[in-house]
Specification:
Elements lengths: L1 H14 L1 H30 L10 E8 L4 E4 L1 E2 H10 L3 E15 L5 E8 L1 H7 L5 E2 L15 E4 L1 H8 L9 E4 L2 E8 L12 E4 L11 E9 L5 H18 L1 H4 L3 E6 L7 H35 L1 H9 L4 H37 L14 H24 L6 H7 L8 H37 L9 E7 L6 H16 L4 E7 L10 E6 L11 E7 L3 H5 L3 E4 L12 E6 H7 L9 E4 L6 E9 L14 E5 L7 E8 L7 H11 L5 E6 H8 L1 H35 L1 H9 L4 H30 L15 H23 L7 H7 L1
Parallel strand pairs: 5-10, 7-9, 16-21, 18-20
Antiparallel strand pairs: 1-2, 1-11, 1-12, 3-11, 4-5, 4-8, 4-11, 6-9, 7-10, 8-9, 13-22, 13-23, 14-22, 15-16, 15-19, 17-20, 18-21, 19-20
């Protein structure tokens, strides 16, 4: 019987190719989009971490409420003390990020580095794919110096998966390191650096720089609360032992499930999945409406079959098999569409989506698609199937005649579905509109710096270079780069613009009383003389750095306007004394200049409280060179590489980006969320309006005789047209009202994704309502105009 029903479905599909194609197309869109986004959500957020018993893994933070820090990295000395004193952990390790210059090959290369204690990889529970990892005690002085472990990505890229690299030396920043092992692939932490070396414990370890990531594996049976209490005990002991540096020290423990993505990214991905889900629901409702329309044309056929002995079960089974067959076809094509969407998304490579390169249509995605297909097949088939016994046999047989009246019950159901489609489309359109306005606001915000024709690249300096040699290198490099014909100006800075992480310090005014309140926390940069000019950052007061200025005591600083307004509101800050690293070493510095504010940590973050120090005398290991060019193209880079090689052939040049590219990357997640939501919203709008058009066109076809009689009895065409148009617009307006009401409530959950736009932004709602009304009216007017082509005589003869 099932095979017979399948053959019947195939014959029916061949007899109505347009309707069949429309049904399969809508299901393909809905299932494909939902499956693709589900694959991203699963791969980025739900897929288990590549560590055994990952639920026992935690990240340990320090906290300093007096500085407004809820979660901050550990200091070097505090980590070692926590490792020694904590009782709740089977293993406890730390990671400190650095960089190296790899030499000994065709050209020098900058590689990222990680200094790790021996407990770091043991805590993660990973095993090498070749060689070994660090043994206990190899983070002690005299034990592990000169050892290196390679990440899988770096090993594959640089050495072509050659396992013979184990046991061979590498020259990193002028020092020799023996490769002892290769890590397995995975994220996070295993790809946090190209090369990992031991973090050697020092007797004079610093307690003032919060730069060490702590990772712990809790002992079996220890809860997160118990581990937190244990570390709080340790923090109290450290505060008592070192009150000058650890006053107010606290701890925070974060479970490993939080490693994958930030809260904002989680919200963005779940929002995208919800948007794709709404699109799927709209497609399913449209399919149900089409199947309802088809079922109403087959009532007489069903009645005849019933009269010949077919049971209700037979008819319901036939309808379900028909809808399941359509659903299966839509799922097959939907999986192909999902795969294409994933390929496109990975090629675009939006920044900030974790493990995106590992996302594939895996077993879970296929199971998800199959489950969705079955659910849709049953739902879209059951509703039309349940209409079969709704009328008695004789009524059904009479209903098959040409002059039969329209089934009002079915018309109400179809109108209800149209209203639901419009409501869901409104929700998607409002969400997309809010995201578009938010992105526009972010991109138009005052950045404080110029991006046109400006580029940034990194030059890594060997650790053995002292301050005098670095000064000469800076001067020689920048002078020669500025002599390149297409370069307008060049400068160096210790931190790349729009980098979320940065070095910080507490700030205070020396001429203001110490109230003991929370210390303002700012960021600091080391810059060369031409930095402000090259970045287009105006000097508002005072002077710039010159050759007289050296980093260190006596400190001289240029501060941002926000710092000046905070510490000396309404007064001139030039010549005043600022307290630097307040609460740490409380160094006094002279303010020699004030520059405009920059959004250095992101366009959606407030302008930075920034303090700038002169590069003279600094030992910064990596220079971020900023260039303003005349061409605005990368053509100057060959000349730059030649200049760098001429000054020092061991210096690697890397990470070349335009400032426009950096700005674009900083909003990549917002742009991805906005673009996909807009695409889903547009598709939803098209599907919803197709539903409006289809229902009204079907209603007119069913009421042709009635309309012909009305016209024959003297009804004006315009009046009949208005009557049909109003009937078509009723579900559109009802759905619009319901969608706006639902979105007014749901929009509060989008607040975290928005910037500079309120979740209930009136302009967005009005624009979407106007658009849906105009397009809905057009979708109703086009089929309604068929009324004007109805010939009363022909309609009456048909009757």
């Amino acid at each position: 019987m099932i095979l017979r029903d399948l053959r019947s479905t195939l014959r029916l599909a061949q007899s109505r190719p347009l309707m069949t194609s429309a049904i399969v197309f809508m299901l393909t869109l809905g299932i494909g989009a939902t499956t693709a986004i589900f694959s991203v959500v699963y791969g980025a957020l739900l897929r288990p971490l590549p560590f055994p018993e990952a639920d026992r893994l935690v990240q340990v933070y320090g906290s300093r409420p007096d500085r407004g820090w809820a979660n901050v990295s550990l200091t070097e000395a505090n980590f070692w003390d926590m490792r020694d004193r904590a009782r709740a952990f089977a293993d406890f390790g730390a990671l400190h990020s650095t960089s190296f210059t790899l030499t000994g090959f065709e050209f020098p290369e900058r590689v990222t580095g990680g200094q790790v204690s021996t407990g770091f990889f043991r805590a993660l529970g990973v095993k090498p794919i070749a060689g070994r990892l660090l043994d206990p005690g190899e983070d002690e002085r005299g034990r592990g110096e000169g050892l290196a472990v390679l990440s899988h990505a770096f090993w594959s890229r640089r050495f072509g998966t050659d396992r013979s690299i184990v046991g061979r030396p590498l020259t990193l920043s002028g020092a020799s390191y023996l490769v002892i092992g290769i890590l397995p692939p995975g994220s996070p932490w295993l790809d946090a650096a190209d090369v990992f070396i031991p973090l050697i414990r020092r007797p004079d370890a610093d307690r003032g720089s919060f730069e060490y990531i702590g990772i712990g594996r809790m002992k079996a049976g220890v809860t997160l609360e118990a581990a937190t209490d244990d570390l709080r005990r340790v923090a109290r002991e450290l505060e008592s032992a070192y009150p000058e540096t650890n006053a107010g020290l606290g701890v925070a423990v974060q479970p490993s499930r939080a490693w994958i993505a930030s809260d904002d990214l989680r919200r963005a991905l779940w929002t995208l999945l919800a948007a794709a889900g709404l699109l799927l629901v709209i497609a399913s409702v449209n399919v149900t409406n089409l199947l309802l329309a088809r079922a109403s044309t087959r009532e007489r056929d069903s009645a005849v079959r019933t009269a010949l002995g077919a049971s209700r079960r037979d008819l319901v089974r036939e309808r379900l098999i028909e809808s399941l067959a359509y659903s299966a076809a839509g799922t097959t094509l939907g999986l192909a569409l999902a795969n294409a969407m994933l390929t496109t998304l990975k090629a675009a490579n939006p920044a900030g989506v974790p493990r995106l390169n590992e996302v594939v249509l895996n077993t879970w995605a296929i199971i998800f698609a199959a489950g969705v297909a079955i659910l849709i097949g049953v739902a879209t088939g059951l509703i039309p199937a349940l209409r079969i016994p709704a009328r008695d046999l004789m009524s059904a047989l009479r209903g098959g005649q040409r002059g039969a009246t329209v089934d009002r019950g079915q018309q109400r159901v179809r109108n209800l579905f149209v209203a639901a489609e419009v409501a869901l489309a409104i929700m998607l359109l409002v969400g997309a509109g809010l995201l578009v306005r938010s992105l526009v606001t972010v991109l138009s915000v005052e950045r404080g710096f110029q991006t046109d024709d400006r580029f940034v690249f990194t030059i890594t300096l060997p650790a053995g270079y002292g301050a005098p040699r670095i000064r000469e290198l800076n001067r020689a490099l920048l002078d020669r780069i500025q002599q390149i014909p297409d370069v307008v100006s060049a400068a160096a800075v210790s931190g790349r613009p729009l980098s979320r992480g940065s070095t910080g310090l507490g700030l205070a005014a020396a001429d203001q009383p110490d109230t003991g309140s929370q210390v303002p926390w700012g960021t600091w940069r080391v810059v060369t003389t031409g930095y402000f000019k090259t970045m287009g950052l105006p000097l508002l007061a005072g002077r710039n750095f010159d050759e007289r200025d050296e980093i260190g005591e006596p400190w001289r600083a240029v501060i941002s306007k926000r710092v000046a307004d905070l510490l000396w509101p309404g007064r001139n800050a030039i010549g005043r004394t600022i307290i630097l690293w307040k609460g740490q070493n409380n160094s006094a510095g002279e303010v020699i200049g004030v520059v405009a504010d920059m959004r250095e940590r992101g366009l959606d973050v407030d302008p930075t409280l920034a303090v700038y120090f002169p590069a003279n005398g600094s030992t910064m290991g990596a220079m971020q060179v900023v260039m303003q060019t005349r061409t605005g193209r990368h053509d100057v880079m060959p000349a730059v590489r030649t200049v760098v090689a001429g000054v020092d052939p061991t210096l690697p040049v890397s990470n070349l980006l335009s400032l426009d590219d950096i700005v674009s990357a900083s909003v990549a997640t917002r742009r991805m969320t906005m673009m996909l939501t807009v695409i889903f919203a547009c598709l939803a709008l098209v599907l919803a309006l197709a539903g409006v058009y289809g229902v009204l066109a079907y209603m007119i076809s069913q009421r042709t005789s009635e309309i012909g009689v009305r016209i024959a009895l003297g009804a004006e065409h315009s009046r009949v047209l208005r009557l049909v148009f109003v009937q078509g617009m009723q579900p559109v307006l009802a759905g619009a009202a319901a969608g706006v009401g639902a979105m007014l409530w749901l929009s509060q959950f989008m607040a975290a994704l928005l910037f500079g736009v309120q979740p209930r932004d009136a302009a967005t709602y009005v624009a979407v309502l106007a658009a849906i009304t105009v397009v809905g009216a057009l979708a109703c007017y086009v089929p309604a105009r068929r009324v004007l082509r109805i010939d009363p005589a022909t309609a009456l003869r048909a009757e």
